[in-house]
Amino acid sequence: MELKGVTVIVTGGSKGYGRGIARTLKELGAEVWITARGATALEQAAKELGVHAVAADVGRGADWDKVFDAVLKARGRVDLLVNNAGAGVAIKDLQEQSDDDIVNSININLTGAILGCKRAAAVMARQKSGMIVNISSVCALHAWPGWSVYTAAKAGLSKFGHGLHTELRPHGVRVTTLTPSWGATDFANAAALPGQDATTLSKCMSPDEMGELVAQLYSMPPHLVVPDITVQPTIQEIIPM
Description:
By secondary structure, this protein is α/β, with parallel strands linked by helices. The chain has one domain (7-231): NAD(P)-binding Rossmann-like Domain (Rossmann fold), CATH 3.40.50. Helices cover 45% and strands 15% of the residues. It has helices spanning 16-27, 39-49, 61-75, 99-127, 148-168, 187-190, 198-201, 207-219, and strands at 7-11, 31-36, 52-55, 80-83, 130-135, 173-180, 228-231. A 7-stranded parallel β-sheet has the order 3-2-1-4-5-6-7, sandwiched between helices. Strand 1, helix 1 (16-27) and strand 2 (31-36) form a beta-alpha-beta unit. The protein is globular, with a radius of gyration of 17 Å. The two termini are 33 Å apart. The model has no long low-confidence stretch (mean pLDDT 93).
């Protein structure tokens, strides 16, 4: 896979899947910008990875404008947007969540990606090329107690991706919804997932493996698109499937 000269934006790029995606694409020759809300961790990650950084909250349109202004000023184009930023926020039964928990979960996991896609769509349609990868979650496909709001956001993201595909396909722009399940990231601890010991996590999808998958999707012939792809570790049993 050769990504030399490809201009990439990865949200949530300071850790987890986002960091792995940024590292892999950078190693393959891409020019990568990462974003996150925490400026200190973001700058440290950018320094270690050798990529560019713009501190931004995906839930704010003005922050998205700042990101795109920086990238377009430097490169004049955007070839790949990876909407990876997300958070469990509050994994608990609905009646136990605050109104702010609910709004924040929707903003981080759904609205933020849509705001980014709006800006990417305008640039890529004008270029007549480009790719958007939205990172969803297996929660969009199944149901577990405590995950209802997060599930609603990720399911919305998946269906949004389908609609965006129909809008951008005539312009030569590809849209993929990438749906992972258990991953070897900090999300497992943050969401207090049971059974996420070191042995189990070693058999889950790593950030670098996620990066390799994104690179493979982008490297497909530009006249081909994978609208949906789901990745699940064999160690995980989902009942019912």
